[in-house]
Amino acid sequence: MASPSLVPDALQHLADTLRSLPPHTSLGNTTLLSSLLHQFSVDVGPLLSIVLENERDALLSNSSWISTHLSELQHLISRLPPSTVAHASHQELVTFIKFDSLKYTFWTTYTADIYTLLLLFIIAIIAKLLFNFGLRKAAVDRTQAALSAKYGHEVDREVARSALKKYVGSMFVVASRSSLD
User: Fold this and answer.
1) What is the Cα–Cα distance from 145 to 160, expressed in whole angstroms?
2) For 102-117, b where at least 16 C-beta lie within 10 A, e where not — what string?
């Protein structure tokens, strides 16, 4: 891993290389470019110390986190099958630990989409129950009389009820399709 402290040396080396090129190369003004690179390395120098300090702090915080949680990580790895641990790469072990450390239960939900779908199903169930219990006896009787007149023989009450449900249900589908247009 390259360290940010090497940036000024790399820029200086690039500037020296540009100065050593023959003057007839098609790079343009190499002396101006090398002086600009030198000036850039001088300007970036103070910022690199801050970057180096932040890099050191990040490494120290990572190592302190690992030392704090090492026993927990060992416990999580010990719960995995030995054959999996033996043949897994580092990245696979990290993925296994991430999945194994999650505490999902039956009640765990992680997106609002689940709540939305659950609400829509609850609304559909309530509407279906209200529709089934909301058919009045008079409406079923009128449907039974209309079907009996249409077919010329007595229609069973349950047949009339199911025909009424189908008719009203198809009206809901037509209404929902027309509202989408």
Assistant:
1) 9
2) eeeeeeeeeeeeeeee
Contacts for 160 with CB less than 8 Å, ≥ 6 apart:
140, 141, 143, 144, 147
Within 13 Å and on the Cβ side, how many CA atoms surround 105?
Answer: 1
User: How far from 61 is each of 14, 34, 66, CA to CA, in Å?
Assistant: 34, 39, 9
Report which residue type is found at 80. Answer: L
Q: Is residue 119 part of a domain?
A: yes
When pLDDT is cut at 50, 70 and 90, the band that residue 2 belongs to is: low
The pLDDT of residue 111 is: 67
Query: 6 vs 12, 50, 56, CA distance in Å?
Result: 10, 14, 15
Are 70 and 13 members of one domain? yes
In a domain, 89, yes or no: no
The overall longest dimension of the chain from CA atoms, in Å, is 109
H/E stretch holding 178:
helix 157-180
- In one letter, which amino acid is 50? I
The answer to whether position 142 is within a domain reads yes
Q: Is residue 8 domain-shared with residue 73, that is, in the same domain?
A: yes
Mean pLDDT throughout 117-137? 83
pLDDT tops 80 at residue 29: no
